[in-house]
Specification:
The protein is α+β, with helices and mostly antiparallel strands and 312 residues long. The protein has one domain: 2,3-Dihydroxybiphenyl 1,2-Dioxygenase, domain 1, CATH 3.10.180. Helix content is 17%, strand content 33%. The chain has five helices and 16 strands. It has helices at 18-28, 91-100, 167-178, 231-243, 302-308; strands spanning 8-15, 32-39, 42-51, 60-65, 78-87, 106-111, 114-120, 126-132, 157-163, 182-184, 190-194, 202-206, 221-228, 252-253, 258-263, 269-274. An eight-stranded mixed β-sheet has the order 2-3-4-1-13-16-15-14. Strands 6-7-8-5-9-12-11-10 form an eight-stranded mixed β-sheet, with helices on one face. Strand 11 and strand 12 form a beta hairpin. The longest helix is centred in the C-terminal third of the chain and has 13 residues, at 231-243. The protein is globular and about 55 Å long. The structure holds zinc ion. Zinc ion is lined by residues 10, 12, 223, 225, 259, 271.
Length: 312
């Protein structure tokens, strides 16, 4: 069996304001709310998921809601930028849309010849829209009621940018173990690595090792998860990573997928998550995200848990 991690599964970040977060990701960015649940390790806090129509692996942007949390600091060891893919030619639409929403965005054309639009979400989380050929984005489906016209809509992740304390070791793990070889080393500030999938599979590693020290809280990414097809391959990855000398967590039941976690050598928290079963396991596709979903072991405490959650 050849173990593969074709691309990114989800990115999880932290927000200090659930209501504002929902408004921004659904109304400004036009992503679909695909799950409202709680942090399985702390049911007093929401865990929100946005994505394409079904929140397919490669499209799921998720947030831990830490109401009133202080601002974190972007820096190593973290995912310092989350990149979403938009169709080629959609950048001008987004420039206008973000300007109308009074969001400062900076466009550039000089990164590996691509058009990139950089901006921040209301917590200060660094985001980029990157133009990508539409055929590579056809995996993702945009709902008919999307507030952003389908031809411009975000189609999953393009990739992530990593600030590692040990960029060379991070790059070695990506290349030698995880199946993300370097594909472009021509930029002065970063090296581009890419997984086998033709979407949501770019990992940029910043080159400098003397980086600002980050602090995880609102406006920062908590971890990035990579996709694995099934539980059997996930087991194989547990062994592969342990043999590489990394500490790997036991398999965790996340209901919508199963997860293992490890810190790459540069300190960034990585996860490997199974493609299935997905967000339709506990509610129908057409009404995803409309109610609070709880894992089966929390159902008996539903009224108590819901009463403690702030309105969204
Ligand atoms: Zn995760």
């Amino acid at each position: 069996m050849k173990a593969t991690l074709p691309g990114i599964h989800h990115v999880t970040a932290i927000t200090a304001d659930g209501k504002r977060n929902v408004a921004f990701y659904t109304q400004t960015l036009g992503m679909r709310m695909v799950k409202v649940t709680v942090n399985f390790d702390d049911p007093s806090a929401y865990h929100l998921y946005y994505g394409d129509f079904l929140g397919r692996p490669g499209s799921a942007m998720t947030f831990f809601v830490w109401e009133g949390a202080g601002l974190g600091r972007v820096g190593a060891p973290q995912v310092v930028v989350t990149q979403f893919a938009i169709p080629v030619g959609a950048l001008a639409y987004w420039q206008e849309r973000l300007a109308e929403a009074k969001i400062t965005a900076t466009a550039s054309q000089d990164r590996f010849g691509q058009s990139v639009l950089a901006f921040e979400d209301p917590d200060g989380l660094a985001l980029e829209l990157v133009e990508a050929p539409l055929d590579s984005l056809s995996t993702f489906e945009i709902g008919a009621d999307s507030v952003v016209p389908v031809e411009y809509a975000i189609r999953g992740f393009y990739g992530v940018t990593l600030a590692s304390y040990k960029p060379d070791s991070t790059r070695a793990l990506l290349t030698e173990v995880m199946g993300f070889p370097a594909t472009d080393e021509t930029a002065p500030d970063r090296t581009r690595h890419k997984g086998a999938a033709d979407y949501a599979s770019v990992v940029d590693v910043l080159n400098q090792s003397e980086l600002r020290h980050g602090q995880g809280s609102a406006g920062t990414v908590h971890h990035v998860a990579f996709r694995v097809p099934d539980a059997e391959q996930q087991k194989a990855w547990q062994t592969i990573l342990q043999e590489r000398g990394l500490g790997v967590s036991p398999v965790m039941e996340r209901c919508y997928f199963q997860s293992i976690y490890y810190r790459e050598p540069g300190g960034i928290l990585f996860e490997i998550a199974t493609d299935g079963p997905g967000f339709t396991i506990d509610e129908p596709a057409e009404s995803l995200g409309e109610r609070v979903c709880l894992p089966p072991w929390m159902e008996e405490n539903r009224s108590q848990i819901e009463a403690a959650l702030p309105p969204l």
